[in-house]
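== Polypeptide entry ==
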Amino acid sequence: MSLTRPFRAIALLRCLPLILIAAALPTTASADWPERPIHMVVPFPPGSSPDLLARTISEPLSQALGQPVVIDNKPGAGGNIGTRMVAKGKPDGYTLVYTINGPLVTAPELYKKTLGYDPLKDLQPITLVATSPNVLTVPATLSVNNVADFIKLARERKGELNYGSVGPGSSAHLAMEMFKNEAGIDLVQIPYSGFPQVISAIIAGDVQAGFMVPAIAMPQVKSGKAKALAITSLEPSESLAGIPTMATQGYPGFEAISWNAILAPAGTPAPIVERLNKELSQIINSDTVRKQLAQQYFTAAPSTPQGLTDRIKKDQARWNTVINQLNLSLD
């Protein structure tokens, strides 16, 4: 026998508190997460700087979440392949990517036709992890001691000086092209397969300069085989104390920062994103991790998800200008 309208109304009112409580609860996937291991894709080879930093983060994250965080190295195409894999992955909180800024910032402009993902649409930022400036590095035998000296020499030997990069579109390439444009100098790019090869060429005098990652440059600077003329952060770096910024040597606003970040596929439930951000922020800010980052010349820099989004947008605008000035495409 069907209920009359008054009885139906009473029944609904009695159920209303339960309905409201259920609506306020997170989805089952979010409430129970994580129930199995989480895979953190690193789109670079084992032993690379991103790989080492990801492993520094993954161990305490495993402890915080109560599940293993497994590192999956998926190198190729400057980090684009592994990043694309995560961008197209299932947004359930079990797949993350630990990547550098290149696949998020410069890749969309360099690979307009073939990239296969949009960082701002296909990925959910979790947090920025750490930042590091590049180091303008020259041979120890080069008769320059600061940026002004180098510019003077480059103008005297117009078109004769070479610089090392790790290929077109790399941070080493784009930072130097920005410097060339602002300083009005002419240098010839010599691409190498990696930063170890670039620093070897600098030491040998095969190239006269390069914007280097500190972990590769500084051991050679400390040994007296190379000189560090400047760093590319706007503020001095604690881990690179004594090396002046480009900004204080006549180029205010000159910034070319390398950074690392953790992201998930777009659509990952908000409670999972919030949990990851909370746990990772505490881990990154811990004394142990900050010291480990500093050993590789990185500064801990956790952020909100929106803060990472803003950083991607800001850096895309900066480097898209340089890429377009060069009329550079890698498709």
